[in-house]
Design goal:
heterodimer, A: alpha+beta, Alpha-Beta Plaits, two-stranded antiparallel sheet, two-stranded antiparallel ribbon, 31% helix, globular, B: alpha+beta, Aldehyde Ferredoxin Oxidoreductase,  A, domain 1, Aldehyde Ferredoxin Oxidoreductase Protein, subunit A, domain 2, six-stranded mixed beta sheet, 25 helices, 18 strands, 39% helix
């Protein structure tokens, strides 16, 4: 059993943005996507919906660029986390993040990012289609492999025999 | 917090804008959304005003729970005096406009006057601007939205637009947000068009404070689970609202060839399962886990490869059964066109179906159609007529006037084939076998419509204890109820209850699929009360909500009475009473509505509403609801 990781499946996303809503309420007590740590990026034509949030990178640019070592790896969850006591609010991490996943909340004067809700991500809990999911890392591969194998089997039956 | 949102009063003639807070007294009396819209429209329009003149007022709103944790708090409501019916105009749409409006700080827009040239309104973080729209005028709604996003430099901008049909004052033009979310009934798009108002755009980052965030999250999860555990929701999650077509068509509840039949045989291509080959995924409104529509690509013909969203159940009827077409591709093309042009899918399909019957009967000929063969099942005739209506070309110019005005142009004989109430066409359902449904259509406050008070679960033959649980609360009711859909007795209460339930849910800005509409087990007054408290801190008992809904529904009634409506307008077309159904299952075959019994239902319905025999709210009711001042001649 490996650690759990967050994965995204754009094919399952219906674009409802419930993840943004529950994230902003969970962390800020308010409905306001501009302070949510997840965001559904949408293209209208042809349509594509992709939920974007912190990837919890192994070699995290935000962590590398932080002058105060305020960003660290939470070994238990495997997540990239913030120590607000050390953070000086320089926003270098906001600039450095290649995914735009590090946010700045002007009202609180704080950076913010996905903290995996301490192991129970609310975006995952509320996403009925599981377009965002939080699963054992070993299971990600096997699930995808199984899905691909079903398609392969189907095609084989249809065209090869 | 959720209660600090404003009402934006905008006069397009003088270009003046003022932002006013919403008095707590109004919240207590009208809640918000459609409920408060009814009051705002009634008090801001002079009786008898020209619906397409500067005195008419457009009210656009998000509900009290818009953007909060309420399962699907996505709905935008729009109201104005209707250019189609000359009565209360009202339409509701999903999508993302309502939450964005609230994040921009606004709960209601009240728009009057007429701009001297095309404009659009832009609200952002408590600021409102009136911007030029010359360069957008003439575009379809998809392009219009894309242009607005681009010029404002923000892809997250949500806008609500009219298309060519609204600009051309088609009397059933819609307003559209996103790809398919349409405020389509009663011609609200034409009212925007008459004011030179192309769009209203919103973008906001203002927070809506949740009163008890942790509890609201947990309760929201519970409400979502309650909704998505029903068979109706699970069917919609997979097939969209289209899943109903197979059931209603097999039963014999689908209006076919205008109103000649109640079922379209050999309609396999129109079945929901067939949509899967066009679908590239499902699509949802804000916060909704039901995601009741497809994102699809058209496969064949002129529009092959075109992307659109939908189609809903009503489009299957409008461009399928009603006009005798058996092609899903045609339904998909029709749905795409009416949304891009900004016209009501129901009214458009019904007008074309009526014209086809007139053509069949020889009441209109190639002369009126300019050679177009308006034959049943002609896919090309359907798409051609949609275009002619939107652009007011040829026969389309007449049909764009709506049923009654068009019939006046085409002669008295044409009137016999119209299926309408209060000047608005019925949708694609045939209610001759189901008196409760027929009553809901006849008495609806916005003209013939299913979404005002339909007790859809009446068709399920539910156990009586389920009906008792739902329809006897709140407020108490000890009269009859009946669980067979063929009955007349016990149905008026069900219609009235649904009217007030839908009013409540639309005052909250929540979707009807999240209340007792297609499932008896979805949230209703009890759950609404809890959702309001956890999200806003306001305490409304179930009975308070019932009274608020009653108050607002009564104001919609008063609006209609002020415009000259009478009891005779709460009535169906003669065909309901004179022509029995010919197809379908035994329980619906050979059925028609009995005039005398229907009249009895209407009496009972009025009595339950505390309206007099003429359908006018009694002074006692107005006093009880504390709105006597709105109807001075009736004061005690």
């Amino acid at each position: 059993m490996g650690k759990k990781i967050m994965i995204v499946d754009p094919e399952k996303c219906t674009g409802c943005r419930n993840c943004e809503l529950v994230c902003s309420v969970k962390h800020n007590g308010v409905s306001n996507p501009s302070v949510a740590r997840i965001h559904v990026v949408k293209w209208d034509n042809p349509s594509m919906y992709i939920p974007m949030r912190c990837q919890h990178c192994e070699d995290a640019p935000c962590m590398a660029v932080c002058p105060k070592e305020a960003i660290y790896r939470n070994e238990e969850l495997g997540s990239v986390s913030i120590n607000h006591d050390l953070c000086i609010g320089c926003k270098m991490c906001v600039s450095a993040c290649p995914f735009g996943a590090m946010g700045w909340n002007p009202k609180r004067g704080r950076i913010f990012k996905c903290d995996l809700c301490h192991g129970e991500p609310q975006c995952v809990r509320f996403c009925d289609t599981k377009a965002v999911d939080y699963v054992e890392s070993s299971k990600v591969d096997s699930d995808r492999m199984r899905e691909a194998a079903v398609n392969y089997a189907e095609l084989t039956r249809r065209y090869v025999r | 917090m959720a209660l600090n949102r404003k009402i934006a009063f905008i006069d397009l003639t003088t270009e003046t804008i003022s932002l006013e807070p919403i008095p707590m007294e109004w919240r207590r009396k009208f809640v918000g959304g459609r409920g408060l819209d009814a009051y705002l429209l009634y008090t801001n329009t002079p009786g008898g005003c020209d619906p397409l003149g500067p005195d008419n007022v457009i009210v656009i709103s998000a509900g009290l729970l818009g953007g909060t944790l309420a399962s699907s708090a996505s709905r935008t409501h729009i109201a104005a005096k209707s250019p189609l019916t000359n009565l209360f105009g009202s339409a509701s749409m999903g999508g993302f406009f309502a939450p964005e409006m609230r994040w921009a700080g606004i709960d209601h827009f009240v728009i009057r006057g007429k701009a001297s040239r095309p404009v659009y309104i832009f609200a952002h973080d408590g600021e409102i601007e009136i911007k030029e729209a010359d360069h957008i005028w003439g575009t379809g709604v998809y392009n219009a939205q894309a242009i607005i996003c681009k010029e404002l430099g923000d892809e997250e901008t949500q806008s609500l637009c009219i298309g060519p049909a609204g600009e051309n004052l088609v009397r059933y033009a819609s307003v559209i947000t996103g790809r398919k979310d349409a405020g389509a009934r009663t011609g609200m798009g034409a009212v925007l068009g008459s004011k030179n108002l192309k769009a209203v755009a919103c973008r906001g980052t203002m927070e809506i404070e949740i009163y008890k965030p942790e509890e609201a999250l947990e309760y929201n999860k519970q409400a979502i689970d309650q909704v998505i555990s029903s068979k109706a929701s699970q069917s919609m999650q997979r097939w969209g609202t289209n899943f109903m077509f197979g059931i209603t068509n097999t039963t014999g509840l689908v209006r076919t060839r205008n109103f000649q039949y109640n079922q379209l045989p050999k309609s396999e291509d129109l079945e929901a399962e067939n949509l899967e080959q066009y679908s590239i995924g499902m699509d949802a409104c804000f916060g909704c886990q039901v995601h009741c529509r497809h994102r699809y690509l058209i496969k064949d013909g002129e529009y092959a490869g075109t992307y659109a969203v939908g189609p809903d159940y009503t489009s299957q009827g409008a461009f399928g059964a009603e006009v005798g077409c058996r092609s899903m591709n045609t339904v998909l093309v029709g749905n795409y066109l009416v949304n891009d042009y900004g016209i009501d899918t129901l009214e458009t399909g019904s007008m074309i179906a009526w014209a086809m019957e007139l053509y069949e009967k020889g009441i209109i000929t190639d002369k009126e159609t300019h050679g177009l063969k308006l034959e049943w099942g002609s896919d090309t005739a359907v798409t051609e007529m949609i275009k002619q209506i939107a652009f007011r070309k040829g026969l389309g110019d007449t049909l764009a006037e709506g049923p009654l005005r068009a019939a006046r142009r085409l002669g008295p004989e044409s009137m016999k084939y119209l299926v309408q109430v209060k000047g608005m066409s019925n949708l694609n359902t045939d209610e001759r076998a189901a008196p409760a449904l027929a009553l809901s259509v006849a008495v609806s406050s916005r003209g013939s419509d299913h979404l005002r008070g339909i007790p859809a679960i009446d068709l399920y033959n539910l156990p009586m204890d389920v009906l008792d649980r739902i329809y006897r609360h709140p407020g108490g009711y000890d009269g009859p109820l009946a669980n067979s859909f063929s009955e007349y007795e016990g149905k008026p209460r069900m219609v009235m209850w649904q009217e007030l339930c839908y009013m409540a849910v639309e005052s909250l800005g929540v979707c009807k699929y999240h209340t007792v509409f297609l499932s008896p087990n979805h949230p209703a007054f009890t759950e609404f009360s809890r959702l309001i408290e956890l999200n806003t801190g306001l305490e409304f008992s179930e009975m308070d909500l019932w009274d608020c809904a009653n108050r607002s529904y009564t104001i919609e009634r008063l609006f209609n009475l002020r415009e000259g409506m009478t009891r005779a307008d709460d009535w169906l077309s003669d065909r309901y009473f004179d022509e029995p159904t010919q197809l379908g299952l035994p329980g619906v075959r050979g059925k028609r509505i009995d005039r005398q019994k229907f009249n009895g239902m209407l009496d009972e319905y009025y009595r339950l509403h505390e309206w007099d025999e003429a359908g006018i709210p009694t002074p006692q009711l107005l006093k009880k609801l504390d709105i006597s001042d709105l109807w001075p001649s009736r004061q005690i």
